[in-house]
Amino acid sequence: MPIDKVVSHRHFCSSTCEDLLALRLHDHICLIYETPEEQFDAILPYIRKGLESREKCVYVADDNTAAKVERRMRQAWPDFDAWVAKKALVIVGKADSYLRSGRFDPDEMCAFLKEAIRQAKSEGFTALRTAGEMTWALGKTPGIERLMEYEAMLNGLAQDHDCILACQFNKGRFPPELLRDALRTHPFHIWHGMLLRNFYYADSSKFMAREYRENETSWVLDNLAEHELLIRAHSEIEGRYRTLCEAVPMAVFVLSERLRIIDCNRRCQELLGYRREDLIGEPFGILVEEESRGALMSRLRGLDVARSRDAADAVLLHKDSHPVRARVHGAKIDVRGASHGDLLLCVELSA
Predict the structure, then answer these.
(1) Whether CATH 3.40.630.30 fits 249-348
(2) Domain span(s) for CATH 3.40.50.300 in the chain
(3) pTM metric for this prediction
(4) Which helix (H) or strand (E) element contains residue 188?
(5) Residue 33 in this model has a pLDDT that exceeds 70
(6) What residues have CB less than 8 Å from 111, skipping those under 6 apart?
């Protein structure tokens, strides 16, 4: 995708909730937020996903009080009390987690997490999911200078145990150098509602090695070179995709999971009169005559990986409002068993 399309692409193709579905056991995530709204818009779906996956969810409050976190959760979830009663959801403070002994010790905290994972599984949960507000590390408690050592250690812990770990950093309160190291020690980041895979990530062995600090410039440049090669490969693939798409003698639409138009070929303009740039980001439903819309959109929503193909006749609307009778072939875009939207092929039916 061209870089100038990335920002607009975010608004119709993805959301934090959808992105969080890509997270898996053993992931270690960093959320850097600027406002409470941005923080809770990301972290509440993250916790909810864990609850619905039968994971034990532990929230460590600090930047917000435990009461404020609870209030946010109650507003979002009418079944809040039920999750608490089942011990699936626990809200604690720093004194019950990071600073239990009055100081911060990364080894002690990792041991605490391992025991929490063991306990969660013994209670019948599938895994442990945590969300920790990290502002406690801005104080003067002994041991906090080892914070990034701890973050690096969590990557190994997450790989070896059934857990998902999220660390939350308030961008306005943490110094830039600490945020920089937070970027280095987390393979995934949530930023402005997007889940980002971090190509600047340094695994624990690399981050803790003295050679890493001495050769950081070379390592960053190597990563930039690798990223540039990926961009070039993506550009080549995009060119092949565009050639194939334009060669198809039918109108082709690529839809997001929300049935908004991500892409279309030149044949769409010939069939319906719209330019490609007029359609990108718009709901596909606006192109379907009202009488046909409900049935067609219902069939598209019913597509899944198991029933990935369907066809239906519908009346589409030309830009100048005259009807276009078409057969719409729908196929689920399946990547490794996961749905990534729909591919539609529209063939005009003769009168």
Answers:
(1) no
(2) 3-214
(3) 0.66
(4) strand 188-191
(5) yes
(6) none
